[in-house]
Amino acid sequence: MTTSATSRPGRRAFLKGMVAGGLLAACPVQTAGAPSSAPVPVPTETVFTTCDMCFNRCGVAARVTGQGKERRILKLDGNPHCSKSRGMLCARGNAAIAMLDPAERLTTPLLRTGKRGENKWKSISWEEAYTLMADKLRGIARDHTPCGMLFTPGADTHSQFVKRFAEAYGSFNVTTHESLCLLSGHRAFMDTFGEVPQPDLLHCDYAVMLGANRFEALVMPDTADAMQAMRRGAQLIVLDPRPTKTARLANEWYAIRPGTDLAFLLAVAHVIIHENLYDRAWVEAHTTGLEQLAEHVRSCTPQWAAAETDIPAEAIIRIARGLAAAAPRSMIYPGRRTSDYVDSTQIRRAFAIVNALLANYDRKGGLMSTPAVALKGYPLDAPWYDHNQEDRVDAAMAPMLFKAEGAFVLTREAILAGKPYPVKGWFLYKTNPLGTAPDRARTLAMMEKLDFIVCMDVQLSDTAFMSDLVLPAPFYLERDDPYFVVQGGPAGPAVMTRSAVVPAPGQCKPAFEVMQELARRLDLADCFNFSLAELKARQEAGLPGLKEATAEKGLLELDVPLYGLRAGQPFKTPSGRIELFSQQYADKGLDPMPVYQTPAKAPQDRPFRLVAGRSAAITQSASTNNPLLFELEPGNTLDMAPEAATALGLRDGDMVRVTSSVGEECLRLAVVPGMRADTVYMHTGYGGLSPARKRVHGVGGSIVALQESAADAICGNSAIHTTYVRVTRHTETV
Ligand SMILES: Nc1nc2c(c(=O)[nH]1)N[C@H]1C(S)=C(S)[C@@H](COP(=O)(O)OP(=O)(O)OC[C@H]3O[C@@H](n4cnc5c(=O)[nH]c(N)nc54)[C@H](O)[C@@H]3O)O[C@H]1N2
Ligand SMILES: Nc1nc2c(c(=O)[nH]1)N[C@H]1C(S)=C(S)[C@@H](COP(=O)(O)OP(=O)(O)OC[C@H]3O[C@@H](n4cnc5c(=O)[nH]c(N)nc54)[C@H](O)[C@@H]3O)O[C@H]1N2
Ligand code: SF4
Ligand SMILES: [Mo]
Hints:
Blueprint: H1 11-26, E1 45-50, E2 59-65, E3 72-78, H2 91-95, E4 110-112, E5 121-123, H3 126-144, E6 149-153, H4 159-169, H5 183-193, E7 198-199, E8 206-210, H6 222-231, E9 235-239, H7 245-249, E10 252-254, H8 261-274, H9 280-286, E11 287-288, H10 290-296, H11 302-309, H12 313-326, E12 330-332, H13 344-357, E13 367-368, H14 408-417, E14 425-429, H15 433-436, H16 440-448, E15 452-457, H17 462-465, E16 469-472, E17 481-486, E18 494-498, H18 511-521, H19 532-542, H20 546-553, E19 555-557, E20 578-579, H21 583-587, E21 608-611, H22 627-632, E22 637-640, H23 642-647, E23 655-659, E24 664-671, E25 679-681, E26 724-729
Parallel strand pairs: 6-14, 8-9, 8-12, 9-10, 11-20, 14-15, 15-16, 21-25, 22-24
Antiparallel strand pairs: 1-2, 2-3, 4-5, 4-16, 7-13, 17-18, 18-19, 21-26, 23-24, 23-26
Helix pairs in contact: 3-18, 4-18, 5-13, 8-11, 8-12, 8-13, 11-12, 14-16
This protein binds ligand MGD (2 copies), iron/sulfur cluster and molybdenum atom (MO).
Residues 181-182, 337 line the site of molybdenum atom (MO).
């Protein structure tokens, strides 16, 4: 949460929430419905599983009591054996317990009976749901080829079964949440280093964090390791237009002008190269294109970058020297969400390039190469059909698309245009584009083009609310998952799993079962001719000790070397080296080295850039309605600098109207000292469409209703920081 010195709306509720949060952490919690006079039950059993309240996959110790129908989870704790999560469970992890209340959940399949958005539903049986889906999917395949179905699975281990089904059915059109998240970063690091590195913040002495907020947007183990490193004296430099918690705790923080990070990075490269501060032998042995890079950054002086970024030239020089002096135990932190700008891939290429100059790759305290860990599965030769379309619907819309993940905002444009071919159906699992994809009105318009939309979720999310068929999924504490690998950076890799701790309410069914049954009804049973238990048994057989370690500690940590993995090995790039200069980009007509362009000026009538980010207490759009977390974040505000508010005659707590080129939302203003005066901010996940999310429906404003649609020019990752807004007083009484 952005802290404000002033009394922002909901502050009292927030303080109350802190108390509730404290209690949560300190003693067993009664589950919903238990009478307050009842004796506090004592856990009799601990079940290890893996948190799924966000993608981090922290180890969980569920404290359980009772048997059979009486079985209840009393409390969730961090699994002390889990190195990746450093044994912790965050507020969201704790609050998972609230999702076990059936009142918070979907419990039967729901068929829409009114118009989309009318909120008229009929509970139907699974048999009816399967019959309907099989009919519709058969019809779409017949009339439009299987590529007429779009599949959008989320980020858990059952999502792989939705992908498997899409392959068996024959559709290339799969988009994942990743094109709303981190693909431009992956593109950049793949194309520079041949792989996506993991930061070793634990052993790092000097880290520069740009566009990342690690003490609120929790990424494990990075969050804990950054704190640990700072305790022993490591320097953390943060560039963020907002005074985030990370900015406040950093050694130095610069309120950078949004969209100018590339100028900063090119100037850092300029200083390191022209002051000869790099390990020449290492760089010459491992990289290609040093001479071209030196030439490229010759004119990118700190003075030039200062005028672009609002960071003083002396600071840029000091930071470049600081990085170089601490190298190889220093880094430009690679970050995670890269869905910022239309040149995000090139910005992240510059992250990678400066890291290469620090000679930190594959070395302690730098960027780590990812140890290979394979788990056995059931391979699938996709039965691609003769009558199928040639390629993905978004294939021609970005020069370096990730084919398996696609680009949601580009797919959306293709569907709206009906070109290169029509898409008529959509199957979503565990993702909520109406809450997380920019320009909500465009997603709604895309849905208008579709004949059949199925959404599988634990709650009636905004996307489920606008679907035709809604399927109830078990929450992670009620679900068995196959084993999966987690990479923990300096914590090392581990294999983890999830096991159902309590039964799911009502008629919830896991995705595996749903996809298997649907496959059977579409004569694709061969592609799902195994059970989840057989898959797990296969995985166990391929990795001795897995079953026992998981039973005993909740995971198997793998004792493998973490540094020096690339020694004597070529990098997985076309040249086999780290590509400071990218010939493959040049061949595709792209800039072979990142070229900076001054961001376009704000339109006169919309002077503020709207940026997005996270609170430590909520996960994107998913958990704002969680009763425990809602106490911590009971709505969102438009955060604005005091000088900007004063100039508009606005005060903290005033209702404001925020207008972009695509939408308008009303919410309260929070005056936040330290914010850049040209930038405003709001949390995601409020002001949604679904009335079933009753705490947040009509509360605050929806940021996705304001964000314009834009995409990274290289890989099509959404670009959510390109929107400018106007802010005026909202005069109606609220
Ligand atoms: N509590 C919590 N933790 C999470 C998540 C969550 O929802 N909640 N989500 C997880 C996921 S999926 C992800 S991808 C990660 C995301 O992790 P981060 O990418 O670290 O998270 P954000 O909060 O999106 O941070 C982006 C920051 O960039 C700043 N910013 C905006 N424009 C610019 C700019 O031009 N330059 C610079 N330098 N900064 C800019 C914003 O103000 C914001 O503080 O977090 C993960 N962890
Ligand atoms: N404005 C704005 N937009 C953003 C971001 C932002 O910070 N601001 N962040 C971007 C980033 S980095 C990301 S990763 C994406 C994330 O975008 P999404 O993938 O849409 O993520 P969530 O909002 O977490 O939605 C997850 C959905 O899964 C449901 N769910 C939770 N657990 C389960 C389960 O066990 N089973 C099933 N079936 N469903 C479940 C939740 O109820 C929720 O509806 O959003 C991106 N978009
Ligand atoms: S960071 Fe929090 S919500 Fe995410 S997996 Fe870990 S404990 Fe769960
Ligand atoms: Mo993300």
